Amino acid sequence: MSLPLLENLNPEQRAAVTLPHESALILAGAGSGKTRVLTTRIVWLIQGGQVSPHGILAVTFTNKAAKEMMTRISTMLPINTRGMWVGTFHGLANRLLRTHWREAGLPQSFQILDSSDQLSAIKRLMKAMNVDTEKYEPKKVQWFINGHKEAGRRARDAEAFDEYSMRMAELYEAYDAQCQREGVTDFPELLLRSYELLYRNEPLREHYRDRFRHILIDEFQDTNTLQYRWLKLFAGPHTALFAVGDDDQSIYAFRGANTANMAEFEREFAHGNVIRLEQNYRSHGHILTAANTLIAQNAHRLGKNLWTAEGDGEPIRVFEAYSDQDEASFVVDEVRTLNREGIALSDMALLYRSNAQSRVLEHALFSASVPYRVYGGLRFFERQEIKHALAYLRLLTNPEDDGAFLRVVNFPTRGIGARTLEQLADTAARSGTSLWQAACTSGGKVAGFAGLIEAIKASTRDLPLPEAIDHVIEASGLADYYRADKEGADRLENLNELINAAALFSEEGGLPDAPGPDTAPDAPVATESPSELDRFLAHAALEAGEHQAGAGHDALQLMTVHAAKGLEFHAVFITGLEEGLFPHEQSTLKGTSANEENGLEEERRLMYVAITRARRRLYLSHAQSRMLHGQVRYGLPSRFLDELPEQVLLNLNRRDSARTSGVQQTAGRYGAPVSRNPGHDTGYKVGQSVAHAKFGTGIIIDFEGRGPDARVQVKFRDAGTKWLALAYARLSPA
Length: 734
Ligand code: ATP
Ligand code: MG
Description:
Elements: H1 3-7, H2 11-17, E1 24-28, H3 34-47, E2 56-60, H4 63-76, E3 85-88, H5 89-99, E4 111-113, H6 115-128, H7 138-150, H8 163-182, E5 184-186, H9 187-200, H10 202-211, E6 214-217, H11 225-233, E7 240-245, H12 260-270, E8 274-277, H13 285-295, E9 316-323, H14 324-340, E10 348-352, H15 358-367, E11 372-374, H16 384-397, H17 402-408, H18 418-431, H19 435-441, H20 444-460, H21 465-475, H22 478-484, H23 489-508, H24 532-543, E12 556-560, E13 569-574, H25 585-588, H26 593-611, E14 614-628, E15 631-634, H27 639-642, E16 649-651, H28 652-655, H29 657-660, H30 663-670, E17 689-692, E18 696-704, E19 711-716, E20 720-725, H31 726-729, E21 732-733
Parallel strand pairs: 1-7, 1-8, 2-3, 2-6, 4-5, 6-7, 9-14, 9-16, 10-12, 10-13, 11-12, 13-14
Antiparallel strand pairs: 14-15, 17-18, 17-21, 18-19, 19-20
Helix pairs in contact: 2-3, 3-4, 5-9, 6-7, 6-8, 9-11, 13-26, 14-15, 16-17, 18-19, 19-20, 20-21, 21-23
The structure holds adenosine-5'-triphosphate (ATP) and magnesium ion.
């Protein structure tokens, strides 16, 4: 076997890559080369002639990871990866349904609703059904529906034991019927529908079982019940399953991820064939020690430890900011310094627990002209103007899509009022047709709208995709609308970016989540390939947030910890390490103590994921006060900071005497405004000795703010100098 391929592997990795044709579980910690082993195995199998590229099914969790996998494969192996089934669960399910739309009972141009489209569809349904939205909150209906779908249950299988759940199940059923009528699906539907397709259609199932000789799954610890069942449907008697995962990185329990799948997989497929990898190649020693020590505090683990042959490296830098703005300024300073020292911006990541935290960071980066890219957050394809353009495109390919129809029938305004639309909806309901059909047979302005869509359709029919989109944006009136809008410049730019995205999509042939023609020689049915527009629309729905304007430029990476899974960076900043934020308050406040323990353990795994993204340098920061959701909150430092071994940490506040000698200097350095308080109204005075439950005893050295906002600065004997909110700190005179 070609040795260069195996040269860069340690003996355990090599054993995993070259396993014979049998199922196995690779259970290993972060940065131990799981993903490298998985991709190398794919190349090894193909190169050795053990399987042809179309006999491979490889699944991972994000489009970014799937793309990375494709890239790694094609650099090692000069083959056309296009026909390979490598992608995310949703991407592959979409591919299956596009190929077998007829058997799946879908129209050829079925569309995919993202989560906000889905919510609007539910609201529209509830309105038509006259459902009390106070009693049945649309969001809860959405959770109900998605939760059941993700567990593989249709409405008829949903357990309904009281009036409330019976009504929910009814709504679920009606929602599915509405989607079917309109030719749309949602994310969990992709998976459930393709599962049902294979489950019921034996010839098709047998075809795929025979075809896929090797199924490889990355991040297996995060599979949910339906995903695991979905995978199992593809596994025939000649299929070898290769699952790699790390129970310590399971971070999607809240979405139904089930680590029990790992034990079940071992029993059902691997039969004890478990390979462990313990050498970490990613991080320097101190970073790894921190990660190991932290995760050791979780009780529910399969248990493993990581070591590295690298030296200790640099200590982990801990920084206590005065406020979230101060934290952001600190990050900007450090990022610029590192960048000047030669670290690419794209090799640095700013991580946070919740999306809401990014605003302040973005503001500081923007003011300092540091290029950055946010993953998640307000996603590109979810921006208002992009959604409008996509709705026009959806109508071109599937006019039955009532959601798309309603979005743009009067945008830009065409004088079609709410009353007209109500009448139209009535007509449609009475004759059991879509709004589109009703519009076509009615007169007036709605008919004019239908005519406009028909005209656009005719003139874009033979245009290449980017030009077609350009034409839609102009002919629909969207471009003029935003040109006339004082604040429309950004939106126009985004619409241009949509055209660029389509051009890029065409160039790349729509990889990885949209299917090309199925080139497998033994394809079970002569498959018509979906139109490029349909593939692009699916891509827009599935890529959800991973496309960003200006992709390709060197930019600092901003994302939630969840989105950082599987990635690595030279330098990582974990910001907002405060109680209530990380660990998130929702995780620590859950009723029973068992739940609470589980919630906290999941947060700790999340912190473990965050720490192990760093290769060389790690920053942990927290702020004494933070503006979040319109409120100032004063958070104590995260308990996770206390759980790290002191000897690997470097306290930046203590080192930098300018910062410890009082808030005044801090303010000077980072411009945070401070309102002084002499302390008279607080019951304390400067110089007084006090005791704090966590930090021990200390002396008051300063005050600021008034009333409920009053804060006090205490120099603790053993815990450094801290600003504390009097209302929360529970100080007592000592
Ligand atoms: P995660 O749990 O975070 O997904 P992982 O186990 O998938 O991590 P990889 O991303 O595959 O780990 O590998 C981590 C880093 O170590 C990568 O940069 C990879 O190229 C490198 N690496 C893995 N194995 C080796 C090896 N044998 N020699 C040198 N570098 C290696
Ligand atoms: Mg990985």
